[in-house]
Design brief:
The chain has about 110 residues and is mainly beta. The chain is built from no helices and 11 strands.
Length: about 110
């Protein structure tokens, strides 16, 4: 099983980023997929999750209306579209599925 995140970087407040997580080694379309984040000095928290077929999603209150999780089962990839980014969104973002974690991608929101 392998989960590989990409798309992180430095963005100004109010900006946007799109994270991707490419999965391999398991039947991606059978699993709920999630995005978590961990800011310095804080515990890892759930940001968003999506059901196996993409028919239902759920979000942390802090990102509702700004972030959108989606998936493409044909490409074995889950995405996190992040809009209206705030400095408090700065964290390492992790993909999670089938009880496995990706390596994380850094998102920094700063002017």
């Amino acid at each position: 099983v392998q989960l590989v995140e990409s798309g992180g970087g430095l963005v100004q407040p109010g900006g946007s980023l799109r994270l991707s997580c490419a999965a391999s080694g398991f039947t991606f379309s059978r699993y709920v997929m999630s995005w978590f984040r961990q800011a310095p000095g804080k515990s890892r928290e759930l940001v968003a999750e999506i059901t196996s077929r993409g028919t239902s999603t759920d979000y942390a209150d802090s990102v509702k209306g700004r972030f959108t999780i989606s998936r493409d089962n044909a490409k074995n990839t889950v995405y996190l579209q992040m809009n209206s980014l705030r400095p408090e969104d700065t964290a390492v973002y992790y993909c999670f599925g089938n009880n496995h974690w990706g390596q994380g991608t850094q998102v920094t929101v700063s002017s």
